[in-house]
Design brief:
globular, mainly alpha
């Protein structure tokens, strides 16, 4: 399918109700309001298409940008491509899911994540923390620099409550990711989670809640899932 054909299909699949819901969750115009499940009918036709994914992301349309992540060929994504995506991402579904997913699956999640978390731009910093979280979810323990991750935990402990809104959310998610996916640092993550306590994030006119890191990690422990890795993170 061409970019124009995909955009036409997305427009047909969109609905005002879904659009209103997405906007309440922070989506920014333009978008058609397409459910992720409906997008996957296009994914089945296209599968992975590097050129098409880049073209769709460049449209600036929220639905097209999310779909771009679903069909991205992670093996062909360059640092330049991913930096461009991080710059263009304007709301949480893109900067905290699409961009980090592909950064992690491309093998560049840690390197780019460490760069992005130093950004003064909230969306890019959020992409950075979630990219590192996604990297931890996929990377075997023996390949993780545990001292580096431990230093990041210390950074979160010191800075989370002074960070920008969505950055606080993703920093909290990073603590959860460390506790859930890196067994040797689970105790440290719980210790940090206890010190930072509940994290306040403005989530707009939604019923969304910020997970309490200690509670979340404890649930993962009870389920016997600490350290269970993922082959891929996008969905």
């Amino acid at each position: 399918m061409t970019k124009d054909e995909v955009m036409t299909e997305l427009k047909k699949l969109g609905s005002e109700q879904t659009k209103k819901t997405l906007i309440r969750h922070g989506a920014i115009e333009p978008l058609f309001g397409v459910k992720v499940g409906d997008m996957k009918t296009i994914v089945k036709k296209v599968k992975k298409d590097h050129g098409l994914s880049l073209a769709l992301f460049e449209t600036g349309n929220g639905d097209a940008m999310y779909l771009a992540g679903l069909i991205a060929d992670e093996k062909k994504m360059t640092a330049k491509d991913l930096n461009r995506w991080a710059e263009l991402a304007k709301w949480s579904m893109i900067c905290e899911y699409t961009v980090p997913w592909i950064a992690a699956e491309s093998g560049q999640g840690l390197e780019l994540g460490l760069q992005w978390i130093d950004s003064d731009k909230e969306t890019i910093a959020s992409s950075g923390w979630t990219s590192i979280s996604s990297y931890l979810a996929m990377t075997p323990d023996e390949k993780i620099d545990h001292k580096k991750i431990e230093k990041l935990l210390d950074r979160v402990e010191k800075k989370i409550h002074k960070a920008k809104n969505r950055e606080r959310y993703t920093m909290n998610g990073f603590v959860i990711s460390v506790g859930s996916y890196v067994p040797s640092l689970t105790a440290k993550a719980i210790e940090v989670a206890k010190k930072i306590g509940p994290v306040e994030v403005f989530v707009g006119d939604t019923a969304c809640k910020v997970p309490v890191a200690t509670d979340y990690i404890e649930k993962v422990k009870k389920a016997g899932s600490i350290g269970k890795k993922k082959k891929a993170v996008r969905c």
